[in-house]
Target: Chaperone protein DnaJ
Amino acid sequence: MSGKLNLTGADPEDSQERIKRCFRQRAKELHPDLTVLDDDQAESRMRRLLDAYRVLCDPERRSEYDRLYGRALRRRRFDYRSFLRSRADPVSLAKLVLYDLMRSRDREALATFGQLQSHVDSDLASLLDYDDFMDCAYLLAEALERDGAYDKACEYYLRVYHAEASRPYFRHFIAEVIERMRDVACFKMAGSAAPVDSVRWIEELIDLDLSDRESAFFCKRIAEIYSDEGDLAAARRYLERALRLDEGLAGVKKLKERIGLHQPVMQHRRQPT
Model:
């Protein structure tokens, strides 16, 4: 919960009105005409800010925080980061990863995450509560992406997706995770990872509960990857699959010519549920 306060700039003792004022101020700072962040970063921060605002304005969740605040206040009287660094147990390391990620200390967080991986019990989901795990996993995926560790970034984006998808409510991360994975798997991995890695993660996206149009885009992207690798048979299979999902799929004319796909493809129709 402390992470939610950090995002809005509010203090634990603040009233609902004060939290609202802090939220409005942070929202203004993320306005496209004022922020120094690029569009993707600003949008990501805004979504997380909105999520934090909803949580802090929920009376039940806020009451839960107020009950825990006494313990948190005692912890703030000493250097919490130094305390965590002095300990080598997995729970403390996981909390330190989150602590540094919340403060945009990517280098320190990734170093601690690497240290955590040497432990048998290194799964963040088992070391943190649900909210902290979701914050940590998402921020870690972003940090890994910025560091060029695209394979590991996709792994954590996908974990966030499945954790959110398993819940009946509050699926705030779903759309953003898909967009992030799409950008990494379809484009950022090109030239910096083996084609098979890109294909593997795009296949993971296709396996999610997406629309035919979205799945068709991903199939077309795999067809392009195989075409670039000279595997025209595989490229044709994936492009045919894409066109069965979306017969009006854009940007396929040159690809069809390049891979020798000349026959019309019968469109796939989803069965009504």
Observations:
- The domain at 1-77 is CATH 1.10.287.110 (Helix Hairpins).
